[in-house]
Amino acid sequence: MCLILSDCPGTQSEQAGKTSSCQGCPNQKNCASGATKAPDPAIAEIGAKLSTVKHKILVLSGKGGVGKSTFSAHLAHALANDGTKEVALLDVDICGPSIPRIMGLEGEQVHQSGSGWSPVYVEENLAVMSIGFLLSSPDDAVIWRGPKKNGMIKQFLRDVDWGDLDYLIVDTPPGTSDEHLSIVQYLSSTHVDGAVIITTPQEVALQDVRKEIRFCQKVKLPIIGVVENMSGFVCPSCKNTSQIFPPTSGGAERMCENLKLPLLGKVPLDPRIARSCDEGKSFLNEVPDSPAAKAYHSIVQSIQDYCSNRVTDEQSTD
Amino acid sequence: MEQNNDGSLSQVRHVVLVLSGKGGVGKSTITTELALALRHAGKKVGILDVDLCGPSIPRMLCVGRPDVHQCDSGWVPVYTDAQKSLALMSIGFLLEDPDEAVVWRGPKKNAMIGQFVSDVAWGELDVLLVDTPPGTSDEHLSVLENLKKHRVDGAILVTTPQAVSTGDVRREITFCKKTGVRILGIVENMSGFVCPHCSECSNIFSKGGGEELAKLTGSMFLGSVPLDPLLSKSIEEGKDFTESFPDSATFRAISSICRTLLNSLETA
Ligand SMILES: Nc1ncnc2c1ncn2[C@@H]1O[C@H](COP(=O)(O)OP(=O)(O)OP(=O)(O)O)[C@@H](O)[C@H]1O
Ligand SMILES: Nc1ncnc2c1ncn2[C@@H]1O[C@H](COP(=O)(O)OP(=O)(O)OP(=O)(O)O)[C@@H](O)[C@H]1O
Ligand code: SF4
Ligand SMILES: [Mg+2]
Ligand SMILES: [Mg+2]
Ligand SMILES: [Zn+2]
């Protein structure tokens, strides 16, 4: 049998179940029957539900542990700092939810409200939703295959009582798999501003991140820009910089030049970031004057500018 | 001789999974370094890389993207040395374009992994290390289902010291218990950074979390590996760290983990 791998044409495409790459796929029967081609009615329901959300931002990276969740959390904190803005953070990492801890909400549970699940609030204008809030103990593992994870993500988008929002930020797991396909598909009838791609400087990370960028291009998800995290560490005692994750292939800077993407900024390694995350506090409040906090603020500013420019673009073209 | 259903694994003595609920904690790095250390100890080693979305091992061992061939008993792994003491098979070798994103839903991944796992002609090996993607999902379940037809000795869990990571690894321990995989031990990676300029130690990702987790869950603690720029550089360049820096604290940590692992495999 030939195992040279090629792509799934997409369960909703005309070719679903019929191409050579469908051979041997356990879903082939289902796909070939046409059952998967009809659009999921949830997509329209989600579109209606999220019509009161002004901006939607996905945080992505092909690589694990580069700081997606840390960045998502701090983006949410920074945006919610403006008390007139309503911000929500949705964690779609079903198997490794980090957001409850990073936001200081470990042990919280979601509540059922009249119109669905109500999210957990950090501040009045900062709502959070994660599968972590549905687990009963820190030992609980979510050992789910793809379809079940997709069902959960659908529920998060359709059945959570988000209310009117200025920003919805979505933290994702590493890779390009079910969760990513689902979130993009379920949001397809709404307007997504774009994705922020997180990487670290070394090639081992960049090689995966380039794939994530291809993924965005494939599913026509605009890229707001790239953040290089963990770039350099300044020794607190002698002030020399060490490249702990060396940019051997030119780091995010070279990649962005090559792929013509905006580099939103670089965040250095700072032990106080890891500590703030462990303690569930905002690093931006804990150490506001640090170089890392300044980097975060400037990146958040670029993202806000991008979102508001898109609004004016659309108003002028509509 | 024996051509039954565990054919390709029939001459593999020990199968060890490298797992972590958390991304980027160094699963692939630890897999690579342990393989090199085991080879130094005179063992025949294989690495099976089942990370479909982000296969890292080919770069870490500097094998690029070789053409892989099939023989009667399956895919022939790629050897990194003339003595054929380190064999590698990465699902990445089968991809048409390395920069292309593999965007697959679970069912398709499961089918591919199922075939892939039982279809490599490993030959005789002392230890087969299996590098996995982060999480507890399709890939893990499929790899386990297929390897268990043969035998799995157990899993090494990799974590970094901070709570954000040990929290996820705690869930991975539950995964192991539920799926009946023995935990061979916990490795704490990226533990403490010694400044090369002034020798001051900074705990960038905190310290001690791996050992605490081992205590809390009654698992063996295999040791901690420091955050060492020479290691990340060596990994980037696909060099053999165990050969380049035999005097470093990092090397001592890795070889001690390797010895403990061998002991526990042989006494089990
Ligand atoms: N700039 C930084 N300096 C120091 N520590 C950091 C920095 N950025 C992130 N961290 C820490 O690194 C760890 C990994 O970050 P995080 O969990 O956000 O990554 P992730 O990409 O979401 O991981 P996963 O792929 O598992 O979802 C966390 O403990 C976090 O606190
Ligand atoms: N002890 C260490 N000192 C310095 N750098 C390290 C160390 N361990 C790992 N790294 C570096 O950290 C990065 C992440 O490691 P690696 O890719 O092995 O993690 P992983 O757990 O396999 O990630 P993924 O979840 O994406 O598969 C790599 O660039 C690696 O070189
Ligand atoms: S049969 Fe498999 S590969 Fe083909 S469209 Fe369906 S899910 Fe994709
Ligand atoms: Mg995360
Ligand atoms: Mg890896
Ligand atoms: Zn120093």
UniProtKB/TrEMBL annotation, chain A:
GO terms for cellular component: cytosol; nucleus. It comes from the Eukaryota. Its cofactor is [4Fe-4S] cluster. Residues 54-225 form the AAA+ ATPase domain. It is found in: Cytoplasm; Nucleus. GO terms for molecular function: 4 iron, 4 sulfur cluster binding; ATP binding; ATP-dependent FeS chaperone activity; metal ion binding. The keyword Coiled coil does not apply. ATP binds at residues 62-69. [4Fe-4S] cluster 1 binds at residues 8, 22, 25, 31. InterPro entries: AAA+_ATPase, Mrp-like_CS, Mrp/NBP35_ATP-bd, NUBP1/Nbp35, P-loop_NTPase, YlxH/NBP35. Binds 4 [4Fe-4S] clusters per heterotetramer. Contains two stable clusters in the N-termini of NUBP1 and two labile, bridging clusters between subunits of the NUBP1-NUBP2 heterotetramer. Keywords: 4Fe-4S, ATP-binding, Cytoplasm, Iron, Iron-sulfur, Metal-binding, Nucleotide-binding. Pfam families: ParA. [4Fe-4S] cluster 2 binds at residues 235, 238. GO terms for biological process: iron-sulfur cluster assembly. Belongs to the Mrp/NBP35 ATP-binding proteins family. NUBP1/NBP35 subfamily. Component of the cytosolic iron-sulfur (Fe/S) protein assembly (CIA) machinery. Required for maturation of extramitochondrial Fe-S proteins. The NUBP1-NUBP2 heterotetramer forms a Fe-S scaffold complex, mediating the de novo assembly of an Fe-S cluster and its transfer to target apoproteins. Implicated in the regulation of centrosome duplication. Negatively regulates cilium formation and structure. Heterotetramer of 2 NUBP1 and 2 NUBP2 chains. This is Cytosolic Fe-S cluster assembly factor nubp1. It comes from Collichthys lucidus (Big head croaker).
UniProtKB/TrEMBL annotation, chain B:
The keyword Iron-sulfur applies. [4Fe-4S] cluster binds at residues 195, 198. It is found in: Cytoplasm, Cytoskeleton, Cilium axoneme; Cytoplasm, Cytoskeleton, Microtubule organizing center, Centrosome, Centriole. ATP binds at residues 21-28. InterPro entries: Mrp-like_CS, Mrp/NBP35_ATP-bd, NUBP2/Cfd1_eukaryotes, P-loop_NTPase, YlxH/NBP35. Its cofactor is [4Fe-4S] cluster. GO terms for biological process: iron-sulfur cluster assembly. GO terms for molecular function: 4 iron, 4 sulfur cluster binding; ATP binding; ATP-dependent FeS chaperone activity; metal ion binding. Keywords: 4Fe-4S, ATP-binding, Cytoplasm, Iron, Iron-sulfur, Metal-binding, Nucleotide-binding. Binds 4 [4Fe-4S] clusters per heterotetramer. Contains two stable clusters in the N-termini of NUBP1 and two labile, bridging clusters between subunits of the NUBP1-NUBP2 heterotetramer. The keyword Transcription does not apply. It comes from the Eukaryota. One of its GO terms (cellular component) is axoneme. HAMAP family: Mrp_NBP35, NUBP2. Belongs to the Mrp/NBP35 ATP-binding proteins family. NUBP2/CFD1 subfamily. Heterotetramer of 2 NUBP1 and 2 NUBP2 chains. Interacts with KIFC1. Interacts with NUBP1. Component of the cytosolic iron-sulfur (Fe/S) protein assembly (CIA) machinery. Required for maturation of extramitochondrial Fe-S proteins. The NUBP1-NUBP2 heterotetramer forms a Fe-S scaffold complex, mediating the de novo assembly of an Fe-S cluster and its transfer to target apoproteins. Negatively regulates cilium formation and structure. This is Cytosolic Fe-S cluster assembly factor nubp2. It comes from Collichthys lucidus (Big head croaker).
